Amino acid sequence: MFGPVRYLWEQLGRGGARATVVAAARRELKLLAGVGDQLDLTAARQLLADRLHRRWQQQREPVNDPVGWFLARGLPRRATCRDVRCDDGKRLDTGQACPACQRDIDSRRGDRRRLVEEVTAALPDAPPETRRAAYGQRLRQFAAEQLAAEQERREQAAAERQVREQEAARLREQTAAAEAGRRAWPCSGCGRAEVAGWCTRCEQQRACRQAVEAAAVTAAAAWAVLDDPADVDAIVEHTAAEVCAAVEQQQSAAREQGAVPETLAVLAKLVAQSAADDWKRAAVERLQNTEESVREGERAYAAAMRNAHLRRSRDTAFQEAHTAAAGARRRVAEHLLNKRVGAVLQTQGRVRMADAAAHVADGTPVVPCAAGSVEPASPAAAGGGSEVYARGAAQVRAAMRSEKALCQGT
Predict the structure, then answer these.
(1) Could you tell me how far CA 33 lies from the centroid of its own chain?
(2) Same domain, yes or no, for 204 and 174?
(3) What stretches of 34-124 show up as alpha helix (H) in DSSP?
(4) Residue 137: Cβ within 10 Å count
(5) What is the pTM of this model?
(6) Which of 84, 117, 144 finishes a domain?
């Protein structure tokens, strides 16, 4: 990179002078590498070497201070326009003449031509010497006006920048104040102070309730007769009871190992979410065997087989057709599940299930009452609650097995 000016580079010695020049060269390389998308570090090095060669060729006097020459004349970019890609009137990325410089030159030529016309119009009969003196005076006056206008623009830009900085500082203060206020909110569940609306335990409990609700609604959407509210309510309650039983079983094991309430809440959420995912997979699998899903799968299979002649082999065509059919059946099943979930949410089962899920996250067992509502069990009734869970879960699993066997048999 310093090859074109090796004579000056050798005069720098080995001390801090070279380190100063190298640091300045690295800054210029970073600027050059960021000029265009096509300029990498190698191209930037070549451009900087060309610049040093060009500046050295323009040097007409002996260099008494090599460091000063590098810092002030050899390395810096020189441009008469505001385009950062301009250097000595040429574009760094293309190597062509800088259009911005040319526009500035044309503008200055136009200004001088206009000033000549003004002076000529004002002094039509004056001798050339007088008009020349008047033109020089008018040119200096015009240059002063341009400098004053440029200074005014800079001051205006500085004022606008200051206003933007003040506005940004004000917004930061408002954001910080709002965040401090939000963090000061008490917990909506337990009332604990300064937890930004929800403490960790209550947030996990809420997520657990939502997961239990999702599992129960999904089971009812896939296995219940939607026109029968009693059937919807029964499956909702049984599914919520089964998920609650799984949560209680895991919490009991964790409680024996000395788990704290926060850990129990997180465990309840994870178990409930896992159960909700399992119910959704089972529901989608069941709905893939419905008439709508099968019909859509057959259409996708037929459409894929129409292009079988474009495949490499018959086996490849069959494989792609089966994959397309399976994907179509799954998409229809997911659509049907979403549609049936919306129907379930319109029934009373969602209310009963939500009441049941509300008592899950804190580890309190849940037992359905005879009237159909759900209440937390007392410690004395906790042992008998597992039998109720088992009966409800067995009914749902039996319904699932019968439905699957019926679909597989057809």
Answers:
(1) 28
(2) no
(3) 41-58, 66-69, 99-122
(4) 11
(5) 0.49
(6) 84
